[in-house]
C-alpha cells in the first residue's frame, strides 16, 4: 500500500472512531434504495429529539433556545445524532467533534442561566459548515490526501462571527476533491444519495443536501 493510501485509510478510521459507539445504528440492506425514513425509525432518537429535529421553523427553534424551553445541549445532541445517522447511511461528513460541540452548547446554556440573556441572535443554534471553513484544532482536508494532518491554527472569520452570535458549530460536511465535480474522494468513503442509494451526488455542496434529505437540519454555511 502506498503512503497516500495508508494516510487515507488511517484518516477514514479516525472518522469512524469519532462516532460514539452508542450512536451506531443497524444499517438497512444494500438493496434498499431509499433511506430517508431511517433516522425516524432506527430507534436512536428519542421522541423529544425527533420533535426537536423535525422543527423546520428556525425562528421557533431559536425562540425555544433563548427562552430555555430547549437547552442548547439537548438540541445540539439531537441534531448531532441525526447527522450521525445520515453519516452512516451516506458518508456526508468530514469532521465529527461531538464533545467539543457539546461543550460549546453547555457554555451557551450556562451563559443564559447566569445572565438571563442570550449570547446573540443565533444563541445555542447548531450549525454545520462546509469543509473549507477552518475551525481551530481541526483538519481542513478539502479532499487532498496531502493535506491530512494539517490542523488549523485559528478559526476563520466566519466561524469567529458564528461564535460571537452564540451559534454552535457541530459538524463539517464533505466536499469533492478541491471542490470540483467528482463525488468520490480518497480521504473519505463514497457518498450516496439517501433517496437513491445506488447513485452519488455530483456537485460541491451536495453533502449538505444529503443531510437535509435525511431529515430537517439546522442551517449550514457553504459557498
TrEMBL record:
Keywords: Hydrolase. GO terms for molecular function: hydrolase activity. InterPro entries: Amidase_dom, AS_sf. Coiled coil: none annotated. It comes from the Eukaryota. Residues 74-181 form the Amidase domain. It holds the Pfam family Amidase. Gene3D superfamilies: Amidase signature (AS) domain. Belongs to the amidase family. PANTHER family: AMIDASE (EUROFUNG), AMIDASE-RELATED-RELATED. This is Amidase domain-containing protein. The lineage of its organism: Eukaryota, Fungi, Dikarya, Basidiomycota, Agaricomycotina.
Amino acid at each position: 500500500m502506498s503512503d497516500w493510501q495508508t494516510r487515507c485509510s488511517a484518516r477514514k478510521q479516525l472518522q469512524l472512531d469519532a462516532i460514539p459507539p452508542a450512536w451506531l445504528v443497524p444499517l438497512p440492506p444494500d438493496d434498499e434504495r431509499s433511506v430517508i425514513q431511517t433516522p425516524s425509525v432506527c430507534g436512536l432518537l428519542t421522541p423529544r429529539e425527533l420533535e426537536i429535529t423535525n422543527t423546520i421553523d428556525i425562528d421557533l427553534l431559536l425562540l425555544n433556545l433563548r427562552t430555555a424551553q430547549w437547552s442548547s445541549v439537548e438540541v445540539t445532541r439531537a441534531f448531532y445524532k441525526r447527522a450521525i445517522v445520515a453519516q452512516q447511511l451516506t458518508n456526508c461528513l468530514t469532521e465529527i467533534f461531538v464533545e467539543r460541540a457539546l461543550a460549546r452548547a453547555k457554555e451557551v446554556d450556562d451563559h443564559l442561566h447566569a445572565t438571563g440573556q442570550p449570547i446573540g441572535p443565533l444563541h445555542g443554534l447548531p450549525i454545520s459548515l462546509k469543509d473549507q471553513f477552518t475551525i481551530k484544532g481541526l483538519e481542513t482536508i478539502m479532499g487532498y490526501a496531502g493535506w491530512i494532518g494539517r490542523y488549523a491554527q485559528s478559526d476563520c472569520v466566519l466561524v469567529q462571527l458564528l461564535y460571537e452570535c452564540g451559534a454552535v458549530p457541530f459538524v463539517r460536511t464533505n466536499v469533492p476533491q478541491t471542490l470540483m465535480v467528482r463525488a468520490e474522494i480518497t480521504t473519505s468513503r463514497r457518498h450516496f444519495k439517501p433517496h437513491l442509494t445506488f447513485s452519488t451526488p455530483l456537485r460541491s455542496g451536495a453533502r449538505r443536501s444529503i443531510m437535509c434529505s435525511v431529515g430537517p437540519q439546522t442551517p449550514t454555511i457553504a459557498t
